[in-house]
Amino acid sequence: MEILTTLYLGDSKEKLKMLSDNSVDLIVTSPPYADQRKNTYGGIHPDQYVEWFLPISKQLLRVLKPTGTFILNIKEKVVDGERSTYVMELILAMRKQGWYWTEEFIWHKKNSYPGKWPNRFRDSWERLLQFNKDKKFNMYQEEVMVPIGDWAKKRLKNLSETDKKRDNSKVGSGFGKNISNWLERDKAYPTNVLHLATECNNKNHSAAFPEELPAWFIKLFTKENDTVLDPFMGSGTTLIVANRMRRNTIGIDNVPEYYDMVRTQIQQVELYLLESKTEYEKTKSEGRISVR
Q1: How confident is the model at residue 283 (pLDDT cuts 50, 70, 90)?
Q2: Among 100-104, 173-177, 241-245, which stretch is predicted with the lowest mean pLDDT?
Q3: 190 and 107 in contact (C-beta within 8 Å)?
């Protein structure tokens, strides 16, 4: 099937209205943080952030499929030595808007820049908030399984009688575990902490994140030919990665330089896809970019 990329230049709140209801499988984005990226996006004061974002999230709720997922990369800033609460306020407001706050992933930045502050340590993590419009959604957990690790050799060597049967949670949650189920396995499901370095390559963008970040969520929540949206595409990392993984993509940004840069990079990715016919033999027609 044909892989389609559609780019929009303009305000996300307005351009999202051009998309059909229930048409997107995954949204992965990192919007401007409060009072940051002033040179490119103008900056939004923390006190106005929720009011600014809710019309956008309303449109995202409309275009996302009931089986889809929204991943929001965001982090509170420090103001006068105190953490801002605008992210927590946004979560509560989005829940009232109709979103389910399903999970919170942590991006551990393995190469965060060293520094010293009088009342805190350096930031080495960011939030990746998972929202859904329905409690049942597509999730392909086997696609992100990891090696089970050396701990299994010792832990599974001598199993107790409790380990050989389902051990129900002592807090009455209804969950339980059976350790013996892992005896013959070499892979396990990951945690909700992603250990990734920050983006070090010059992408001509003030806040580019590493390609591994969107790739992980694309594998977890979509399959080939699904549609991935980034309403604040910036340098286009999410779109470029999704395009390589043969997902349809939609990107929006209000900075012409980023729009032109992403358009050029997406076209290069398409050439790569066409040249790799043996690797991508399921792609029967040429990739194409539709620029709007």
Answers
A1: very low
A2: 173-177
A3: no
**Which residues are registered as beta bridge partners of 250?**
6, 229
CA distance 41 to 192: 30
Residues 6+ apart with CB under 8 A from 134: 66, 67, 100
Domain ranges of the chain: 4-145+189-291, 150-188
**Cα–Cα distance for residue pair 133/137, rounded to 1 Å:** 9
Query: Under 8 Å CB-to-CB from 162, ≥6 apart: which residues?
Result: none
Predicted pLDDT of residue 105: 97
Residue length of the chain? 292
**In this structure, are strands 125-132 and 146-147 parallel, antiparallel, or unpaired?**
unpaired
Strand extents, DSSP E, 169-223: 176-177, 187-188, 193-196
State the number of CA atoms in the 13 A half-sphere of 229 facing the CB.
28
- Give dist(CA 25, CA 252) in Å, integer: 16
Task: CATH number for 4-145+189-291: choose from 3.40.50.12780, 3.40.50.150, 3.40.640.10, 3.30.1330.60.
Answer: 3.40.50.150
Pairing of strands 4-9, 248-253: parallel
What is the amino acid identity at position 29? T
- pTM to 2 decimals? 0.81
Q: Which amino acid is at 193?
A: V
Tokens coding 60: 């995202």
User: Which tens digit of pLDDT belongs to each residue from 24-38?
Assistant: 999 999 998 776 555
**Residue pointed to by tokens 């943080």:** 33
**In whole angstroms, what is the distance from residue 105 CA to residue 273 CA?**
31
